[in-house]
């Protein structure tokens, strides 16, 4: 049985990846320090013979006393609210944490895939974004702590590949959504859905003309799975190219949720990218992958998840 270590296992993507690899009959070791994650995301795996969990901060030396075939490094705050609240930890998990996991992969002769992001393109001047675009990031802006941590993460990963011959994979994840997102993580989907459920107006930042392209979690997980098993070591975009403005998106959510609330406008956060859409030609060619779940279907499943939360969860404003 293949053994895989998944960091960030108690988070949104990490927990779905644990499920997927258990389904594929891997032995999964989940690791997390719960800084933005939730034990509840893994509660259904308690007692599973193919799953074990280690509570650990990956910025500290990572010790695993068994062989490993694969490592997925997904630990990192991922929402703008989170990484603005814990900027130093964000920089540390992308740099020191990645260094520790690359060292572990080298010691275990394991293949490692790291979770990079469309944020490496910053506020992009090339549209849609292709993997060969170097990006437009403000190093010292508020989002720099996340963007630069992820850019460093890519650099050190390629250095381990080139210098040590380590088997590495880099996925550049574009906005992904689905069940188990944290309602109060500030990302636009939980924000709008939470507001609709609480009977509050939907907060659009800026004039809502900025765009995003939302990928359903099962499609994302499938892309990551295929990339891990591929033989390609340069970055690959995984996301859904169907682009929408945030204003149109708010209208879709109002229709889906049936809320009688309206939209209100707030200031656009500094360096908030104006446009984002993945070019997924590479993933299509290399992995024979493309997203299958359209926004209407994915959003309905996600809204059903948020509707199933308790009143206490719905009104909890702090993590
Ligand atoms: P999340 O916040 O739900 O999950 C991240 C997990 O990492 C949490 O459980 C958190 O507790 C854990 N973690 C953070 N720092 C840690 C540390 N030092 N040690 C151990 N665990 C730590 O976020 P997510 O949306 O699931 O994102 C997962 C990964 O995917 C991140 O690396 C993120 O940058 C990347 N990503 C996500 C998206 C997206 O749309 N969801 C887009 C681009 C990139
Ligand atoms: N956004 C918004 N209202 C909110 C939360 C977010 O208008 O309540 C906007 C945000 O400014 C950004 C887009 O929605 O332009 C996506 O934000 P998110 O935090 O989900 O992801 P990211 O900016 O990292 O793509």
N- and C-termini, Cα separation: 36 Å
The major pleated sheet works out as:
7 strands, parallel
Summarize model confidence as the mean pLDDT: 97
What would you call the structural class? alpha/beta
What letter string, H or E per element, gives the SSE order?
EHEEEHHEHEEHEEEHEEHEHHH
Q: Give me the side-by-side strand order of the main sheet.
A: 3-2-1-4-5-6-11
Helix content: 25-40%
**What would the principal axes of the Cα set say about the shape?**
globular
Number of E-state strands = 13
Hetero groups in this structure are:
nicotinamide-adenine-dinucleotide, uridine-5'-diphosphate
Brief write-up:
With 319 residues, the chain is of the alpha/beta class. 38% of the residues lie in helices and 17% in strands. Uridine-5'-diphosphate binds next to helix 5 and strand 8.
Describe the structure.
- This protein has about 325 residues and is of the alpha/beta class.
- About 40% of the residues lie in helices and about 15% in strands.
- The strands form 4 sheets. The chain has a 7-stranded parallel β-sheet, with helices on both faces. Strands 7-10 form a two-stranded parallel ribbon. A two-stranded parallel ribbon has the order 8-13.
- The chain is globular, with a radius of gyration of 19 Å.
What is this structure's SSE topology?
Layout: E1 3-7, H1 12-23, E2 27-32, E3 51-55, E4 70-73, H2 80-85, H3 87-108, E5 111-117, H4 144-164, E6 168-173, E7 176-177, H5 188-198, E8 202-205, E9 211-213, E10 215-216, H6 217-229, E11 236-238, E12 243-245, H7 246-257, E13 263-266, H8 281-287, H9 295-307, H10 311-315
Parallel strand pairs: 1-2, 1-4, 2-3, 4-5, 5-6, 6-11, 7-10, 8-13
Antiparallel strand pairs: 9-12
């Amino acid at each position: 049985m293949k053994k895989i270590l998944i960091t960030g296992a108690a988070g949104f993507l990490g927990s779905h990846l644990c499920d997927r690899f258990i389904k594929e009959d891997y032995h999964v070791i989940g690791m997390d320090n719960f800084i933005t994650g939730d034990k509840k995301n893994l509660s259904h795996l308690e007692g599973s013979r193919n799953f074990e969990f280690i509570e650990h901060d990956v910025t500290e030396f990572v010790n695993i006393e068994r062989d490993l075939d694969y490592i997925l490094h997904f630990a990192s705050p991922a929402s703008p609210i989170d990484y603005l609240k814990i900027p130093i930890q964000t920089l540390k998990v992308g740099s020191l944490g990645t260094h520790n996991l690359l060292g572990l992969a080298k010691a275990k002769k394991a293949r490692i895939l790291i979770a990079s992001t469309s944020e490496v393109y910053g506020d992009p001047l090339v549209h849609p974004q292709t993997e060969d675009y170097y990006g437009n990031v403000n190093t010292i802006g508020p989002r720099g702590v996340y963007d630069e941590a992820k850019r460093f993460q890519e650099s050190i990963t390629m250095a381990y590949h080139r210098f040590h011959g380590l088997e590495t994979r880099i996925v550049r994840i574009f906005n992904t959504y689905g069940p188990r997102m944290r309602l109060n993580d500030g990302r636009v989907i939980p924000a709008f859905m939470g507001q609709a459920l609480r009977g509050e107006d939907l907060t659009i930042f800026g004039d809502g003309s900025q765009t995003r392209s939302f990928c359903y979690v099962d499609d994302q997980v499938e892309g990551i799975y295929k990339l891990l098993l591929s033989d390609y070591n340069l970055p690959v975009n995984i996301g859904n190219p169907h682009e929408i403005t945030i204003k149109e998106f708010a209208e879709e959510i109002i229709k889906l949720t049936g809320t009688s609330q309206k939209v209100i406008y707030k200031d656009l956060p500094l360096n908030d990218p104006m446009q984002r859409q993945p070019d997924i030609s590479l993933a299509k060619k290399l992995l024979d992958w493309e997203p299958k779940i359209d926004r209407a279907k994915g959003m309905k499943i996600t809204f059903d998840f948020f509707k199933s939360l308790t009143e206490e969860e719905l009104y909890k404003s702090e993590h």
